[in-house]
Amino acid sequence: MTTPEDAERLDAADELAGFRDRFLPITDPGVVAYLDGNSLGRPLRATAARLQEVVADQWGARLIRSWEERWLTLPEEIGDELGRVALGAAPGQTIVADSTSVCLYKVLRAAVALRPGRDEIVIDTGNFPTDRFLAESVAAERGHTVRWIDADDVRAEDVAAVTGPRTAAVVLSHVDYRSAAIADLAGITRLVHDRGGLVVWDLCHSVGSVPVALDAADADFAVGCTYKFLNAGPGAPAFLYVNARHHEAFGQPITGWMGAADTFGMAEHYVPAPGIRRALSGTPPVLGMVGVQEGVALLAEAGIERVRAKAVALGRWVIDLADEWLVPLGFTVASPRDDARRGGHVTLRHPDAERLSRVLIENGVLIDFRRPDGIRVGLSPLTTGFAEVRAAMARIRELAA
Q1: Residues forming a β-bridge with 145
Q2: CATH architecture designation of domain 72-301
């Protein structure tokens, strides 16, 4: 069931197909398929228009007055909408601020401080480098020890094996950046809480692709980027989530003026703002937040459940094509075959993946290589079609052969 007619049938039945017209067209005629939206999403037409409006009218005409008229409250306003649309978070717990790395540092430092007397941070060896590096940095600053989970697909039993009375915080990715395996967010959070620790979730590869229910899971902290499935643009600001029950004791370590109780009071000493605003540090990146706002608005219109359903269907389509065309050529499917456990991309392994990846990109199939042998096929439901995927997989088969 992988014929051109099947692809046409799937595209014709796609409820989200019309959203592809909401993005700027790919003008490079050599591109066969863009399958790297899980690293950098495509630009929205609305974002281009909004940026022009913000520069010309808000910045150009209203000048500095725009700070008090609309800009100062954007981090919370966009954060609340993001929480509602994609994170399962009630208002007042999500805010747009800084990069993912800075947000992760803030919440991890705060998390370990909330567990005095405990001196271990738990993280898996396969987590994204930033997460691992920061876990080691925070551990060094606090005199803590890092306990490692050595597993490619972290499950509750793996976490149980390394957590206990010394565990201050556990840092995990909800969706693995290599395999796309989905972790049991609610179950792992519950397990760590039963042992007295806190959990920091990295949502970079799930936000905008996989529904998240932070409040329902009683999650502690979460961070994530906005330039992947939210299509907010290169270097767009990240977000962080702090459960309301932690707000009063939440002490983030980068105490800049935007997180102070009286931003313009120029007080002699720092007093944190109430609620989630204390998570801010420096001046909000207004132009970058425009992309986040438009990406969240589009996701709200499309609906995260419909986006998830199409991501699952696209992933199944890639696996079916891989089994038929690529496995005989030495490829293996490295992502979960169980649809419920697979995020928004499929990773294919090949012994010569690094060289093959360069050849694919040179020939118009824009994918991502991840060491040592992974080729990631990114599936962005609002911009990716089934015929596009089939054409890309056919080109991969041709080049690999």
Answers
A1: 120
A2: 3-Layer(aba) Sandwich (3.40)
Q: Which residue has the tokens 């309301």?
A: 244
pLDDT digits (tens, 9 = 90+) for 250-280: 999 999 999 999 999 999 999 999 999 999 9
Q: With 0-12 CB in 10 A as exposed, 13-18 as middle and 19+ as buried, what is 61?
A: exposed
Which pair of structure tokens corresponds to residue 1? 């069931």
- CATH architecture classification, 4-43+304-400: Alpha-Beta Complex (3.90)
Residues β-bridged to residue 224: 239
Name the strand (E) or helix (H) holding 173: strand 167-173
Q: For residue 234, say if its preceding peptide bond is cis, omega within 30 degrees of 0.
A: no
Residues 93, 176: Cα–Cα separation, whole Å: 24
Predicted confidence (pLDDT) per residue in 281-306, tens digit: 999 999 999 999 999 999 999 999 99
pLDDT digits 0-9 by tens, 342-367? 999 999 999 999 999 999 999 999 99
| Helices 386-400 & 353-362 angle (0-180, nearest 10) | 120
Query: Are 133 and 278 in contact, with CB atoms under 8 Å apart?
Result: no
The Cα–Cα gap between 135 and 208 comes to 25
CB distance 215 to 95 below 8 Å: no
Tokens of 115: 């567990």
Tokens of 175: 């969706």
Q: pLDDT digits over 116-143, tens only? A: 999 999 999 999 999 999 999 999 999 9
Sheet holding 120-124, edge to edge: 94-96, 239-242, 221-224, 198-202, 167-173, 120-124, 145-149
Which amino acid is residue 109, in one-letter code? R
Q: Is-contact 19 310, C-beta < 8 A?
A: no
DSSP class per residue in 91-115 = TTSEEE-S-HHHHHHHHHHHHHHTS
Domain positions in the chain are: 4-43+304-400, 72-301
What is the spatial distance between Cα 252 and Cα 257, in angstroms, rounded to a whole number? 13
Note whether 360 and 367 are within 8 A (CB). Answer: yes
Active site residues: 128, 202, 227-228, 376
Query: Which residue carries 């012994």 as its tokens?
Result: 351
